[in-house]
Structures are given as C-alpha cells and as structure tokens.
C-alpha cells in the first residue's frame, strides 16, 4: 500500500487492521497521543473534545458522500423497521358474486359459481340456486407489530482508517 493520508479510509478484504490503521468501529482515542489525527477529525464522530475524540463508526452503515443535508459525520437510517397502520397504503379486499348459473361457459366477470347441491358436482345447470353468505363480519387489522429487516443487499468488508500517514494539505 502506498503511504496513506492521515485519516484516510480504505476498504480491505481481510479481517485485521494493518499496522498504522484501525477499524472504523467508533473507538474513542486520547487527543494527547493523536493530536494530528484529532486536528482533522475533531469531535465530528464523538468524544468530549477535551481529552478524547472518536473514529468514525461504519458498523452496519453504508457510507455516502457528504452534502448539504448530510454534513460530515451525519448518521441516519435504521436496520429494522416496524410499520404502523398509517404507513400501509389504504386498500380493500372485496368479494364479487354473480347470480348466473355455475355451468355458464362464460359468466360475466368470470366468477366462480356455487352448485345447487353437493350431489350436482362442481357445476350445476342453474335450476336450483343456494343462498350463500360470503362473509359474516368484518376484516380487521392483523399482524404483530414485529420489526422487519430494512436493508439493501450488502457484502461485509473491513473499513480501516489511517492513524499514521501524510498530513493532507488543503490545496
């Protein structure tokens, strides 16, 4: 690896932080032993700013480029979501029925017919019709208000931040 900039973040495909690097796991570091690194990061990612500061914590996070509505260090999003009734689009479950004989080859709307009696089989000639209650009651809310995963497809790799390296110049 070429010499990194101090505070540079890289992705690596192995499970250890190389010498001079640390995982981006939000570790709290002492300012006194890391003054150059603190001068770049400050308390953007945490710490008290008097004796400590924090490294970025990318565990379970997707890094994005900073912007106007997402300044450096901004965190948003959650790994799981519990939907409320207000978040589910309004919808209905309607049942339609036809009073045409069940043996009609092309009933309007192509709805299933009800046989006149069990002995007539699945389809009847329509000479006898049975009254059938399709639904006695109402449909109510269901579910258990359980959280579900809310994550895009991902592949876990290691993110490391340089604790040593070239101090980046502004221009």
UniProtKB/TrEMBL annotation:
Residues 8-63 form the Phage tail collar domain. Pfam families: Collar. Coiled coil: none annotated. Gene3D superfamilies: Phage tail collar domain. This is Microcystin-dependent protein. It comes from Roseibium suaedae.
